[in-house]
């Protein structure tokens, strides 16, 4: 993964989330995308913390955006791996920091993400 791709991706990702446009947000992800998140575990315990498949993620994120109308991310740092990147950001509406580790498939779509939050 190049620094140029990672930087452009992270900037687009933050802009997409800040737009609250779910179609733009989901354009970064594969159809078989899965996300592991403590928030998924808390809000939807039946998922055991992992939401699998783009349609299920759409439902999960629809709930999240509807319940967080002031959600806004600010990029704090970006770490680049071989086929992955880590975005360190803050939700400026809540001052909660998060790290999202994303792996990419051969089409350069995110196929898995793991999210960790500050307390």
Structure description:
The chain is an alpha+beta fold and about 120 residues long. The protein has helices at about 5-20, 20-25, 40-45, 55-65, and strands at about 30-35, 50, 75-80, 85-90, 95-105, 110-115. It has one domain: Roll (Nuclear Transport Factor 2, Chain: A), CATH 3.10.450.50. It has 4 helices and 6 strands, in the order H-H-E-H-E-H-E-E-E-E. It is globular and about 35 Å long. It starts with a helix and ends with a strand.
Short description:
This protein is an alpha+beta fold. The chain has helices spanning 3-19, 22-26, 38-43, 54-67; strands at residues 29-36, 50-52, 73-80, 84-91, 96-104, 110-117. It has a single domain, classed as Nuclear Transport Factor 2, Chain: A.
The count of β-strands is 6
Give me the strand/helix succession: HHEHEHEEEE
Give the second-level CATH assignment, the architecture.
Roll
CATH-defined topology: Nuclear Transport Factor 2, Chain: A
- What is the overall pLDDT average? 95
Task: Please give the radius of gyration in angstroms.
Answer: 13 Å
Domain count: the total is 1
Largest sheet: 6 strands, mixed
Distance between the termini: 31 Å
Query: Which spans of ≥5 residues are poorly predicted at pLDDT below 50?
Result: none
> What is the helix fraction of residues, given as a range?
25-40%
Instruction: Determine the number of helices (DSSP H or I, runs of at least 4 residues).
Output: 4
């Amino acid at each position: 993964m190049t620094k140029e791709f990672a930087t452009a991706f992270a900037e687009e990702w933050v802009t997409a989330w800040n737009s609250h446009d779910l179609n733009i947000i989901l354009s970064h992800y594969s159809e078989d995308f899965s996300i592991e998140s403590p928030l998924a575990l808390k809000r939807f315990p039946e998922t055991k913390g992992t939401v699998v498949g783009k349609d299920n993620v759409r439902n999960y994120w629809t709930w999240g955006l509807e319940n967080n109308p002031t959600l806004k991310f600010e990029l704090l740092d970006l770490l680049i791996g071989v086929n992955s990147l880590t975005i360190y950001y803050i939700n400026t509406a809540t001052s909660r920091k998060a790290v999202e580790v994303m792996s990419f498939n051969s089409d350069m779509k995110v196929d898995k993400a793991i999210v960790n939050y500050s307390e």
